[in-house]
Amino acid sequence: MNLKILPIVLILIIILLSGCTQEQNQPNEAQNLKCNSSCDDKNPCTEDICSEQTNFKCEHKEIIPCCGNNKCEQGENYLNCEDCAEIKTTTDLSKLAFDLKDLPDDYEIKEKRIVSKSEVNMSEALNISKELMEWDEGYIASFIKKDTFKAIGQRIYIYPSVESIANMDFSQGIFLIEENPLNSYEKIPCDIGDKCVSWKITFPIEGKSEELTTHMLYFAKMNIYEDIFVFDLDYELLIELAKIAEAKIK
């Protein structure tokens, strides 16, 4: 090699090696990225997220439903969330009662009328909670299917305020059949109105081998309390009727 060229070649090699070393030692930009010490936006109704998936930037995903966002959302009501304003209805109770068009075919009205307190003022005898008896107006509707045991019943009570039924004991109800060792009782959760409980009660028929079943449901919405039962009919029908009754309360 020409000795005059050798220094130049050495200089080029040194420059190249130096460049490679610097490139290898250059930190990865992605590795330098990191989240801020806190992404908390002080909003309990958002999920605060920062990760590689968000390119290490803070994002705030809205939580729905969330009590505290000043919106009354599905699953929230005046009993469990401050976002839901206390409201009540003063609707004529007869308008909340079932009509024949609400029922399966071939039913007829047995009775539809106002109920007086004197008719049901038996709270001690029936072991009904005192709160349950503090209603202002009551209404009853019942229907039967001709030549069968099948029957549908509904009692509607309007209370002076929402608070008057907020802590009501739903373990007992106007329709709840007195406990009997021969009967079987099954409590079933339900999701009707602001508060709900339902029962399946099976009892024998005297002198016969078969049994009959009554399904009962109690629910409260606003300042309205309702008992609904279906006798010798299935639970699915009870829920369908209860949803119709709930939708009438506005």
Structure, briefly:
With 250 residues, this protein is α+β, with helices and mostly antiparallel strands. It contains six helices and nine strands. The protein starts with 5 loop residues before the first helix and ends with a helix.
3D architecture notes:
The longest helix is centred in the N-terminal third of the chain and has 20 residues, at 6-25. With 250 residues, the protein is α+β, with helices and mostly antiparallel strands. The chain folds into two domains: 40-85, no CATH class; 93-248, 3-Layer(aba) Sandwich (Protein Transport Mog1p, Chain A), CATH 3.40.1000.70. The chain has helices at residues 6-25, 29-32, 117-120, 123-126, 163-166, 235-248, and strands at residues 46-49, 59-62, 107-115, 137-145, 151-158, 184-188, 195-204, 211-221, 224-231. β8 and β9 form a beta hairpin. Strands 3-4-5-9-8-7-6 form a seven-stranded antiparallel beta sheet. It is built from six helices and nine strands.
How many angstroms does the end-to-end distance come to?
101 Å
Strand portion: 25-35%
Gyration radius (Cα, Å) is 34 Å
Side by side, the strands of the main sheet go 3-4-5-9-8-7-6
The residue ranges in which pLDDT falls below 50 over 5 or more consecutive positions are 25-31
CATH architecture of the largest domain: 3-Layer(aba) Sandwich
Task: Give the class from helix and strand content and strand pairing.
Answer: alpha+beta
Coarse shape = elongated
Q: What's the total count of β strands?
A: 9
The profile of the biggest β sheet is:
7 strands, antiparallel
* The CATH class of the largest domain: Alpha Beta
- The helicity comes to 10-25%
N-to-C SSE string, H for helix and E for strand: HHEEEHHEEHEEEEH
Overall number of domains: 2
Count, helices:
6
**Global mean pLDDT:** 80
CATH fold-level label of the largest domain: Protein Transport Mog1p, Chain A
Determine the CATH superfamily of the largest domain. Answer: PknH-like extracellular domain
